[in-house]
Design goal:
This protein is an alpha+beta fold and about 150 residues long. The chain has two helices and nine strands.
């Protein structure tokens, strides 16, 4: 694979998400992921929030959508967050259940048959598909999608 001239190192910065109601979405992301609100705009017609951890920007929310997420439109497939252990995934699952998040699968599932990595797959209040996973510890459950990657079609 080639490298673009001048780019020596590349990593994902932050992810911006359009939401329909920031008053509903902001508490969900803060509670579910333990984000801090780094900055917030409350002007009528220009509502937004910058979310992060330890001062690092990770997710931005922009109240500018009229309808929830749909898989029939091009764009974000899902947003995934990696944690260190499967116990952290299970702890996040309990928080998300208290928040009444919609889950795609029941509990922790592997990314594929015989694969150690895996996690939970759920949606935010606008239906944006999210994942929290760990690199190991999920291989005790069966893969829910057969040969296809678990995160591919949920």
């Amino acid at each position: 694979m080639g490298q673009s001239a001048g780019i020596k190192s590349l990593q994902t910065g932050h992810v911006g998400l359009n939401v329909t109601d920031i008053e509903r979405s902001l508490p969900f992301y803060v509670e579910a992921f333990g984000f801090e609100v780094l900055a917030e705009g409350k002007d009528e017609g220009r509502r937004w929030a910058l979310l992060g951890r330890e001062g690092r920007l990770l997710v931005t929310l922009w109240q500018q959508s009229e309808a929830g997420f749909t898989t029939s439109s091009a764009g974000l497939h899902h947003l995934s967050f990696q944690v260190e252990t499967i116990e952290e995934v299970r702890a996040a699952e309990q928080v998300l259940r208290r928040l009444n998040a919609a889950f795609q699968y029941d509990g922790v599932v592997p990314h594929g048959e015989g694969v150690a990595s895996g996690g939970i797959f759920f949606s935010d209040p606008d239906g944006i598909r999210l994942e929290i996973y760990a690199p190991t510890g999920a291989d005790s459950a069966p893969a829910p999608t057969g040969a296809a990657p678990t995160c591919g079609f949920f």
